[in-house]
Amino acid sequence: MDERFDCIIVGGGIAGLSAAITLARANVRFLLVERGEWSGAKNVSGGVLWGRDLATLVPNYWEDEDAAFERYVAHRRLTFMDDGAAFSLDFKSNHFDEAPYSGVTVLRSRFDAWLAGKAQEAIDASSVADESLIATDVLVRELIVEDGKVCGIRAGEDAFYADSVILAEGVNNLLTRQVGLQTEYVPATGLAVGVKEVIRFDAKVLEDRFQLSGRRGMSNEFVGYATDGVEGGGFLYTNRDSVSVGLVLGMEDLRRSRKKPYDLLNGFKQHPVVADALRGGEVLEYSAKVVSTGDLRAMPEEVYGEGVLVAGEAANLVLNAGRAIQGMDFAMRSGMLAAETVIEAVRAKDFSTAIFKHYRTALDASYVMQDLRGFQDAVKVLHSPEMFTAVPRLVCDFGREFFTVDNRPTKKAWQILRDVRKEHLSYWDLVKLGAKASRAL
Amino acid sequence: MSNADASVRPLTIAERLGKVAYRNQGRSAATPHIVVDTAICNSTCPHQCTTYMCPANCYTLDDVGKVHFQFEDCIECGTCMYACDQGAVAWSYPDPETGRGVNWNAG
């Protein structure tokens, strides 16, 4: 079977579906192929889609009763932990309650399926409804390249042709590698392993325990004991009737440590503070995923080539600069921008790299690349060993002294800080780290 | 810790994988989507790191320290493809019809 489309999108995750919705609204004829049985069947994330782009893609989504986000983030917490204590920065504000929300928790198997429904609605409403298609259960074996230009895909016995291909295949970007935009062997540098459990609670228990009401939710990130000295951090996000709890572990450091990711997850769950939060829950699912960390060295050489554009985590567009782990919002924006370049090409009837380069320009001008470039130092600081060893211990020691009243003469806060600092870091290390962090963040 | 609660009690990897929905479980033989040249693991590899880094414990060590691989429990995360810097892992996605792989319920 030979078919020709304006565009083929490989991957029905957030990047691919965001591209699809954008193309459908511009009446561009496309084929989206997804290897899972449904969109979301193969997708895992930590759990928060940050930012407000979802409202651009699906206006007033929060009014849709079937909208498959779990909760909006109304309460944020960053926790430093050692083996026995946890010291949190905790922020709650009623501005978080205003739609469009600035973050929603998601479970991808459900969220992506819902977003695929929105993409289908957009196709149905377009003037080319009979000529665009979302196909699931289709694995792309390879890209068809003719005269150096990507012009289609091969899936099983079938070949499909298009003037442009958007690769939204996720972090394990085999097709991006096939066309030489990414090296064939990608080393572990700049990559992490995420492991997660989804733990079910009665909604009432969940709401009481985390002080939630309505669709309000909480996001909690953890540094320190969470990863038992391995580079990385932990997270706990509330869904509608479950929590997502997991770890992101730097791959090179994990290799050095000789520790197992699922053992570390057990350790994290047993920390008194985390155990208190999880008591009484039922583990529904265990999952894992490779995660980009925001290190630009892990990115493909270029996000476009002849006939092809790369979006989402296929281009390693993820950033953890200490404020939030952003990946799904980058996927959404890059998918939209890639589609806009395709729309421009369709209108100009020009699918040359001169036009495709506009995607690169648009991505560079967007917050995605601005932040990825601007926060490279933060990525480095966060990955320095002190950040997940000495610093959280220091913070917890300070907390133990500061919050303990024991009927002895009390030290001033600066004295406590001075004394606990000596135990964990040299003064010089602290100054260096503080200076680096204040510049980087 | 004396808490016997399932959410707090450490889960074994077998218990965890028992909660994963795999595709084509009825098939007697699925097509492997990852091929590992364990001869490399068992001769020149200095770390055999997949045996502890794989989140699904697909790579195991036997009594005499030899690496064995099975793809049936694979949850398609991709870790081994990056972790192995010895060229022993040929990684691809499972075929929807004949392969194994996951169907996430939550994801």
3D architecture notes:
The complex is a heterodimer of chains A (441) and B (107). Chain A has 441 residues and is of the alpha/beta class. Chain A folds into 3 domains: 2-70 and 103-188 and 295-375, FAD/NAD(P)-binding domain (3-Layer(bba) Sandwich), CATH 3.50.50; 191-292, Alpha-Beta Plaits; 389-440, no CATH class. Chain A is 37% helix and 26% strand. Chain A has helices at 14-25, 53-57, 108-124, 174-178, 203-210, 251-257, 261-270, 272-278, 328-348, 353-365, 367-374, 376-382, 385-388, 390-402, 413-424, 427-440; strands at residues 2-10, 30-33, 48-50, 72-81, 86-92, 103-105, 133-135, 142-146, 149-155, 158-167, 191-200, 216-224, 232-238, 242-250, 282-292, 304-305, 308-310, 319-320, 325-326. In chain A, strands 1, 2, 7, 8, 9, 10, 16 and 17 form an 8-stranded mixed sheet that branches. In chain A, β4 (72-81) and β5 (86-92) form a beta hairpin. In chain A, α1 packs parallel to α3 (108-124) and α1 (14-25) packs parallel to α9. Chain A is globular. Chain B is globular, with a radius of gyration of 15 Å. In chain B, 17% of the residues lie in helices and 11% in strands. Chain B has a single domain, classed as Alpha-Beta Plaits (2-Layer Sandwich). In chain B, a hairpin with a 5-residue loop joins β2 and β3. A two-stranded antiparallel ribbon of chain B has the order 1-4. In chain B, strands 2-3 form a two-stranded antiparallel ribbon. The model of chain B has no long low-confidence stretch (mean pLDDT 92). Chain B has helices spanning 13-17, 38-41, 50-53, 79-83, and strands at 34-36, 59-61, 67-69, 89-91. Chain B is built from 4 helices and 4 strands; from the N terminus they run αβααββαβ. Chain B is of the alpha+beta class. Chain B starts with 12 loop residues before the first helix and ends in a 16-residue tail after the last strand. The chains are: A alpha/beta (441), B alpha+beta (107).
